[in-house]
Amino acid sequence: MHDFAFMIHPLDVNDIYRKFPKARIMPDKLIEKAMSLCPPFFVSDITGIKSQYNETGGMFVACPLTARQMVEMPEQTVLNKIIQTGKYAEKMGAKVLGLGAMTSVVGDAGITVAKNLNIPVTTGNSYTVYTALEGMKRAAELVGIKWQQAEIVVIGATGSIGSVCTRILSKECKYLTLVARDEAKLEKLAGKIYYEDGLAVRTSTQIDQVLSQADLVLAVSSAVTEIIDPQKLKTGAVVCDVARPRSISKTVAREREDVLVIEGGLIELPGDVDFHFNFGYPPKLALACMAETILLAMENLFESYTLGRELTIGQVNRIGELAQKHGFKLAGLRSFERPVEEGKIARVRACRMNDLNARAI
């Protein structure tokens, strides 16, 4: 049963080696070049997804381009490869296609891809937003941050995920700083938030200048390199890194015991789930973008749910309601693909309290 297909791609050559270990004997650039010449291919079946209302199954299909190639190659070339992969999923019987990782941000964020296929397409960004905010709020409470009063920085704020995140947060929080590369887009978003909610948000194009004051950092940038310097983070801060590739280095786990980094959008699926493929997460856990695709199949809602860069708050709330109906739930907090230990949370909380006490003296 292939009700849905989810498109994946290698983030870097290490992902290629995971699938084809014998390829390690070849230079990285040669491997990338060889993969780019390959046609799309079937990766594995996805089975056992079952709620009290319905059950479904699907498959992974691979677009053989790395994240770096998707940024550096001509946009139309990349789009053609994504469309080719979508047509392959369609041929394999999929009724809805989810775009994973960089395939969801190339060009117009899925609109052109959908126009060239006979099945609906989703980027999964609505459920990604819902779970990112849910995870950030949960982590904030655990380390003693009153998130409604916290200094919150959103990195990648003008993107499709970042902009709707900030609009939702602006209805609940008082102190928001928006970070992105394009100053004009930042000002436009800030104006929209002020019009909707009367909240005057700060904007910046310089990440390092705003990190030191941030209690909560939501990273939703589409950059292909790590852009958050661990040394700039505030003691006791929580970073929710939704970006893929990551926005923050694993070195933060070694260098900053006083900071909590969590992965956003990791979902526990209902049923006896088997991906028949190791893509880096424990059994039954999937990224929210993939989970949205599965939710559409579970509901027999075969429509292009989340496309383009203008998400609505209504879309986010609706997919959240469907997730609750079918028993999809946010996995326990995870950091760099490992569960966050209670001891880590306690240490960050203690560091935060000590820092606050020191500042009060």
TrEMBL record:
<dbReference type="InterPro" id="IPR006151">
    <property type="entry name" value="Shikm_DH/Glu-tRNA_Rdtase"/>
</dbReference>
<dbReference type="InterPro" id="IPR036291">
    <property type="entry name" value="NAD(P)-bd_dom_sf"/>
</dbReference>
<protein>
    <submittedName>
        <fullName>Polysaccharide biosynthesis protein</fullName>
    </submittedName>
</protein>
<dbReference type="Pfam" id="PF01488">
    <property type="entry name" value="Shikimate_DH"/>
</dbReference>
<feature type="domain" description="Quinate/shikimate 5-dehydrogenase/glutamyl-tRNA reductase">
    <location>
        <begin position="142"/>
        <end position="254"/>
    </location>
</feature>
